[in-house]
Structures are given as structure tokens and as C-alpha cells.
Amino acid sequence: MYESLGPYTKNQLNKNVQWSLRKRTYNFDLAEKLINHNDAVIKNVTKNENSEQPKKTFGSITDEDIIKLKMEEKRKITWENKLFLSPLTTVGNLPFRRICKEFGADITCGEMAMCSALLQGAPQEWALVKRHKSEDVFGVQLCANNPHLLTKCGQLLQQECDIDFIDLNLGCPIDLVFKQGGGSGLLCRNRVLESCVRNLSDILHMPMSVKTRTGVYKDENIAHSLAPRFKDWGVSLITIHGRSREQRYTKSANWAYIREVAQAASPLPVFGNGDILSYEDYTNFRELAPEVQGVMIGRGALIKPWIFTEIKEQKLWDISSTERFDIIKKYANYGLEHWGSDNKGVENTRRFLLEWLSFLYRYIPVGVLEQPPQKINERPPFYMGRNELETLMASPSAADWIKITEMLLGKVPDGFHFLPKHKANSYN
Ligand SMILES: Cc1cc2nc3c(=O)[nH]c(=O)nc-3n(C[C@H](O)[C@H](O)[C@H](O)COP(=O)(O)O)c2cc1C
């Protein structure tokens, strides 16, 4: 199964497995057999549908049929009413997820991992499947543009790792991924999408979920028409981010449409995702979309990881600057534990902390707001903190973020420069 990195971290890439992936000797017969079988079925059904002939069944049971797991034989996860921390590239690393778990996140997921790189045994991609022992319901999110890569990866992760579910990324808007037909690019390729979902679901003993957007274009919502098909193809949960690829973060998430998707998917559970930054947002959106079974939270958790506590305790928390600083301090410690406390580990911890600080500064303390709670798409007003630390943590300047890391990790090396990877500022 997995080698453990001490008692706390699972899913370390085993050297023999890495070797066989690099040498291309890992045995993927199971995945290949399944794809050939399923693709023949999909082709035949389509042919029969087109010629309006009665659908054929597929003869006697073959070994392909035997390896196919029926939905009811799969392990199950109770999704209802759970708080799901979004997969978050770069920032949703293991130390950050530990913090969110401590504040009450129920479900966590690794950052999007590219199947092609996992199949090559690339260490930086395998870092994305590591799981902390506190992550009791943990998924890995995969991105690929074809069923071969996905199904092989499903087989590989199932055999080599300890994971509770696999999520298929159908929302990534990045040009490079989209143009090659992965992420939200799969939404435009019906046949390939069907093959990806069916094959991945069939090879897994664990549940699979999909994370999608409303569609590709802003005026062409398609998630509601895909939703019932996802169920037929073997999906256990749909998460829908209520924006199209084209919209990125402009405009508010469309929760009325998220509701339509939940209605169309029923009884398959649907989670809503987009713009939750407070308990008030959470209750408003759940009232707007009562058929939705749970929510996923991304930027809300990056800006205020205690949002999970707020939702569970149904309150707005006027957290002090010292308490906030303690969270950052804890992250630095978790970072050093995870990335190492040698020079390289310290600088990795610093880089990832800086990425997180580029979101954290957007938090506006409850006590300084005229009309709490803060809304995710409102531009923060200029304000002075109630003390020096609160003012420092509100600074949009990378120089001040660096100063914060220096309070915890020592001086930056000479010539140090930092530019955040993600543009966190998308206000209406
Ligand atoms: C920094 C960052 C990284 C993200 N990385 C991923 C990712 O790896 N996979 C994914 O499906 N979505 C990713 N997303 C999208 C979020 O999961 C989520 O769908 C989106 O931010 C909307 O939810 P929110 O309003 O709660 O942030 C990312 C978003 C941000 C801000």
C-alpha cells in the first residue's frame, strides 16, 4: 500500500513504483481491458441509437464485466451537509488543509494533479496526493484530457495510495489545459467526457465525484443537462461552481442555477460552490438552493480558515489579530514539518506562506466593518487596524507579507523576490 512519512503523512511515492512508472513497466492491463470493453459498449449503444434499432445486451459475462464494480458495491461516503474544502492549486497544500481540518472542514481534497505527470512518477505531482492523518475524508483531484490517462491513474492511485474518493476536474479554465481538452475543455467533448467518467468510475472501488462549472460560455449553461448523465455514468457527487469558464471570477456565483442543477441531478447529491465567506452567506445560499446537499468553500477558507467553525457554530467570529497571527505561526510550524526545516524547507514554507498571505490580507475584521459580515466581492475599504498587528495583516503590499514571514522564519535570503501566483483580487 503506502509508505508512511512518519505517522502523520500517507501516500508517499514508493521508489519501486516510481521506477516502474519511469521505465513504463507498471502493469496497467486492468485499465486497458476496461477501456476497450467500455468503449465498445459506448460505440455500440450510439450506433444502435442512431439506427433506432433495439439496444443489444452484451452477451455472456466476460472478465471485463467481472472487474466492473457495480455502484452498490462501491464504498460509500455520506456527503449530506458536509463542509468541503475546495481543491486549491498551490495554496491548498497539506499544511493549509491541516489548519482547515482543525477549524471544522469535513472533507478535504488535494490540489489538482495532472494524470500525465503522476503516470511519469514525477515527485512534484505525487506531492499533491499526500494526505495528513487528520484528513479523515480525503480525495485526490485529477485532470486529464482522455480516458486512458484517467483510468490508468485511477488504477494506480487505488493500488498505491490511501484515498477515499477521486474527483475529476471539469472546471479548470487555464488556457493550456482547456485548449488540450482537459478541465473545462472536457465539457465540450461529449463522447470523450462519457468515456472518461464511465471508465474512471468503473475502475474505482471508491466513489468518484466531478467538479464542474455552469458551462464554458456565460450564456450557455450546460451543467443541468449533464447532471442526470453523470449519475448514469457512475458519479457519486457533483460539485458545481456557479460560474462559466468565460466568467472566471467576474460576476457573482449563480446559486439559482446551482439549484437547477441539483434538481436535475436528483437523487444524485449536488454540492454548491461559489462566494461563501460567512455563516450568513452559507444560510442564504442553502435557502436559495434547498435541494443542494452541501457546500464547497475555496477563497472563503483562504481568507478566513475559521469560516468552518463559524458555520458549524452559527456565528460571526470577531477574531483578534493575535489569534490570527497564531494561525499563521501554526502554519509555519506545519510547513517546516512537511517541507523540512533545512534551508530548502524553510524557503518552501516561506513561499507557500506568502502565497497564502496574498489571500489572508483580504480579511476585514468584524469590529471595523460598518455592515458585517464581509462579502467576498466587495472591495475592502481602507481601514486602520485596532492595533499594529491588525494593520500589518491588512496590508496589500508584498513587502509587508515578507515582513510577516520574517517574524516567523527569519530573514529572507539576499535578492529575494515574491510575486503571487494567483490574482486573488476579483471584485465586481
Ligand atoms: C488559488 C485558487 C486555486 C484553485 N485551484 C483549483 C483546483 O486545483 N481545482 C479546482 O477544481 N478548482 C480550483 N480552484 C477553484 C475553487 O476550487 C472554487 O471552485 C472557486 O474558487 C469558487 O469557489 P469560492 O468562491 O468558494 O472560492 C481554485 C481557486 C483558487 C482561488
UniProtKB/TrEMBL annotation:
Residues 85-338 form the DUS-like FMN-binding domain. Its cofactor is FMN. It comes from the Eukaryota. Pfam families: Dus. Its EC number is 1.3.1.89. InterPro entries: Aldolase_TIM, DUS-like_FMN-bd, tRNA_hU_synthase_CS. PROSITE patterns: UPF0034 (PS01136). One of its GO terms (biological process) is mRNA processing. Keywords: Flavoprotein, FMN, Metal-binding, mRNA processing, NAD, NADP, Oxidoreductase, Repeat, tRNA processing, Zinc, Zinc-finger. GO terms for molecular function: flavin adenine dinucleotide binding; RNA binding; tRNA-dihydrouridine47 synthase activity; zinc ion binding. It catalyses: 5,6-dihydrouridine(47) in tRNA + NADP(+) = uridine(47) in tRNA + NADPH + H(+); a 5,6-dihydrouridine in mRNA + NAD(+) = a uridine in mRNA + NADH + H(+); 5,6-dihydrouridine(47) in tRNA + NAD(+) = uridine(47) in tRNA + NADH + H(+); a 5,6-dihydrouridine in mRNA + NADP(+) = a uridine in mRNA + NADPH + H(+). Belongs to the Dus family. Dus3 subfamily. This is tRNA-dihydrouridine(47) synthase [NAD(P)(+)]. It comes from Rhynchophorus ferrugineus (Red palm weevil).
